[in-house]
Design a protein that fits this description.
single chain; membrane; transmembrane helix; mainly alpha; transmembrane; 0% strand; 92 residues; globular
């Protein structure tokens, strides 16, 4: 049986719920949509939200990415390449 250390060592409440990687993706997309704001500023803004609102924002961003993938996927592999390029330019 593998040892599972307690999760009390984590300081971010979103990481303790398993939302850390999802939150990072949402911060990257949101900072890409707002080019005047730095990524750290967007992350701080997201941390200031209530947990329910923060989860709703992350879910909305990820839902938008999924909807975009389904929409562009309807156009075949060329659509998926265009979607991939949009996401890359958005996050960079």
């Amino acid at each position: 049986m593998a040892y599972n250390p307690p999760m009390s060592h984590r300081s971010d409440s979103s990481d303790s719920t398993g939302m850390g990687p999802l939150r990072r993706v949402a911060v990257g997309v949101l900072s890409g949509l707002q080019p005047r704001r730095e990524t750290a500023e967007v992350a701080a803004w997201l941390d200031d939200q209530t947990p329910g609102r923060r989860n709703a924002i992350v879910a909305g961003v990820l839902g938008g990415l999924l909807a975009g993938a389904l929409l562009f996927g309807a156009f075949g592999w060329i659509g998926m390449l265009v979607y991939l390029l949009i996401v890359i330019f958005l996050v960079n």
